[in-house]
Amino acid sequence: MFDFEDEIAKLPEQPGVYLMHDEDGTVIYVGKAKVLKNRVTQYFRKNSNHTPKVLAMVRRVAYFEYIITDSEREALVLECNLIKKYRPHYNILLKDDKQYPYIKVSINEPYPRVFMVHRMSNDGAKYYGPYMGRGTIKNTLDIIQKLFKPPTCARKFPGDIKKGRPCLNYHINTCFAPCTGQITKEEYRKVFFEICRFLEGKHGDLINELTNEMYEASAAMQYERAAACRDKIKSIKEVMDKQKITSTSKHDDADVIAAAADGELAYIEVFFIRGGRVIGREHYRIEHTAGAGSEDMITDFIKQFYADCDFIPDEIITESEPHDAELISQWLRELKGRKVRITVPKRGDKAKLVSMVRMNAEKAVSNHKLRLLKEKEKSGVLESMRELLGLDKIPNRIEAYDISNIMGADNVAAMAVFEYGRPAKRRYRRFKVQTVEGADDYASMREVIYRRFRHGMEEEARIEAGELNVRDARFLPYPDLILLDGGKGHLNAVSELMEMMDNDTPLFGMVKNDRHRTRGLVGRNGEVEISPSSPVFKLITHIQDEVHDAAISYFRKLHEKIDSELNKIPGIGEKRRIALLTKYGNIDKIKEAEVEDLADTDSMDMKSAEAVYYYFRGKKNV
Questions:
Q1: Which pLDDT tens digit goes with each residue over 78-97?
Q2: Dist CA 461 CA 589 (whole Å)
């Protein structure tokens, strides 16, 4: 048995990290200390003025252990790593583990591209960010597309210049179409250098350059080019007007942090200032905060957030000074490679900015409480669904499946996932049907369901072997309920498969009426009577619409890719494209077909067949 008095007496008077364990051996708290003996002893003094949270933790401690370090700074680093590893119940924990994207301009390539990436690489390209949330980066990329019209297609330059007709983006004026051959390499690269200046915030320089170009074009009577420059200038000024919130320093990078709590519920709000402008904001839910003050929450947030952050700003502005602020600042300096200031403004513009950030944190808490109320309402709908369908448990995870094709060509499927009554779009999955030819929806559905559970079992094995983290699994957990877009036939086909797999997941078909609208559910014993005005019926309609839209959008995406490839072949128009896809089903089989087989397709002749045959073999039709 662990002798606390004896072990406390043995504690060294050195810096280090201590770990508190419960009777099961689970780490329930990790802390650091400048002097281990002094800090750990405080927990077990009878008359200590502890918070209720600390008292509850101490009552659960069965034993503790410690790790001696050479310095308090090393103890801080070790504490961060151990909290991340064990996620102890009594530590304040950052709930959201987010990685922020960057915009990459591959200026190191002869023909650059601009796109989103999640990590910076030392490859000679230019990276901008990080951008805080997908909404922010999507908005920025949309602005770039509107202003500069860079190509977004899969064509590779210069190899694909003058090969095939320009795509739809050219015709709707969202691409400057280098594929036409009317743009020189120098002109192409000039556009991307303009994009770089825009992302670097050098709006004034860019406006001056575009103004000069506009006047030159006008003097040369190139009015279309002058008008394009004018429109760019106007759009850039509009972007500048939207970025009026600035920091007090015109060029610094800073993060502004504030916290708000309501009992166990707490949020940290962060505004991200880059180059003197607020480029985004994000809020983070933190756990185990009962009895914690603003200083405690901000201290633990900074340590956990910046430990793995790709970018650390020059200044961190907070509403409360974190514990060990000087030590944390030294640690951040080592991570960044240069000085990082932690400031707590009491007056002036920075104090007003902190106040605004705190107001947003309080709003995040309020919004979360509203979401909890809505989820409680949703759970009532799921309970009603459980009773209506005779399920053993509430269907907190519902998976729905739909098949999409045209005349049996290019069978695809979508899996939509609803968690706690709401669509979980990041968990949606898409499938290309591999073993079924022709319009056999029953066989296609069987294949997709089989593959879904096979992937799940493979992931379970990898998790057990330590090869996969549970959070990275794509097909786990398993569903509580499966809904198929189709009637009794789909249900029977998949039921046989489920019996063969010894899988007892509840299964129902989503049937539609003559007007192709949701009618209800069908089970093994026939249709289930559901009132069209009931919340359960509305949820089923939502699920059916979601999975149908997901399947259709995936089919269209693949079909557009196929059309784009066939569009490049001279003499192959829409009628012949449809005929080829109807006969062969997918692009791979068209590539493998012989000339005689291609010519034997409706609407095709020997000349067009040879054009297709030689195109996919990289030869000229001679």
A1: 998 899 888 899 998 887 55
A2: 35
